[in-house]
Amino acid sequence: MQYFKILSVNISAQKGEAKRPVQEIKLTSEGIESDAHVGKGHRQVSLLAIESIRQFEAQSGKKFAYGDFAENITTEGFLLPTAKPGDRLRCGTVELEVTQIGKKCHGTGCSVFTHTGACVMPKEGVFARVICGGKLQAGDLFEFSPKKYKIDVITVSTRAYEGIYADLSGPEMVRLLRIFCAEKGWPHEVSTHLIPDDATALKSVLQRLIIEKSDFIFTSGGTGIGPNDITPETVEPLLQKKIPGIMEQIRLKYGVQNRAALLSRSVAGLSGESLVFTLPGSLKAAGEYLSEICPNLDHLVLMRMGLGH
User: Fold this and answer.
1) Domains of the chain
2) Which of 18, 127, 139, 238 sees the fewest Cβ atoms within 10 Å?
């Protein structure tokens, strides 16, 4: 765990003006009491690191006080802009979820921009929403907990399950997903599951992983029209929201070169908090499908959090 210090807590009566330091702030499900930005939404609390302020002072040749950038909380000891949506900040009973890094500059509507021609908040300000309320004051310590993504890969194949041949697509999916997460800087854990072509077994694993709030569930195999292909019809009833466009685009893209790709019945959707994707069982399909799915995962995460459009 990483800890960092709160240097100042600040509020303002009006939006678009500098905030003033106060002895303590009270956070509720509506945000910060008595602050101009109190209310529902995902930017209830704004944070700015003193490290960012000092760097901006060096560039602008001007000095700034706590709250001048309209931040509610001024911190020290952690590079806040390195946080990502989904990360958590905890102090006592207070828990904040990071929702946004930076924001659109108000331009001439911002007093700092008016005097310096620039501002640090649009690039390095951090915004969060209140998960659990409480009180904060200068001197308190935040505990930073990065979001750790739970990923599950399920290979559905009786022959692989019985050891007739090795599962190749499952390990390849794990490899590609690890590469993607490393590139995104996402802490993660990947678990694998090997089951036969059995609807009861697949449903049981899926329901357990959904209850455990797995972030991403990928299945491999069982998307054709053979007598043992049971994956899509087992998965679909568990989805509250389907995402048909991803699989439609993949079928069309790869169906141009290989018409057999058009025959896949792969589906995708949201079940609880889990994003579920069913992929064909071939090694080649693992790479093709993930090359199209992975670039959408960060936006899907934001949408799941209620942040994307």
Assistant:
1) 2-145 (2.40.33.20), 149-304 (3.40.980.10)
2) 139
Q: Which phi and psi (to 5°) does residue 84 adopt?
A: -135, 155
Q: String of b and e for 144-178 (b: at least 16 CB within 10 Å)?
A: bebbebbbbbbbbbeebbeeeeebebbbbbbebbe
Q: How confident is the model at residue 302 (pLDDT cuts 50, 70, 90)?
A: very high
pLDDT for 238 beyond 70: yes
Q: What is the rounded CA–CA span in Å between residue 158 and residue 221?
A: 10
Alpha carbons 218 and 206: distance in angstroms, whole number: 10
Question: Does the CA dihedral 154-149-99-53 come out positive or negative?
Answer: negative
Dihedral Cα 117, 48, 123, 111, nearest 10 deg = -20
Count of residues in the chain: 309
Comparing CA positions, the residue from 92, 94, 102, 93 lying closest to residue 127 is 102
Longest dimension (CA), the chain: 73
Nearest to 2 by CA among 101, 126, 141: 141
Of the candidates 191, 208, 197, 270, the residue with the CA atom closest to the CA atom of residue 234: 197
- Say if strands 149-156 and 141-145 run parallel, antiparallel, or are unpaired: unpaired
Report d(CA 86, CA 92) in Å as an integer.
Answer: 19
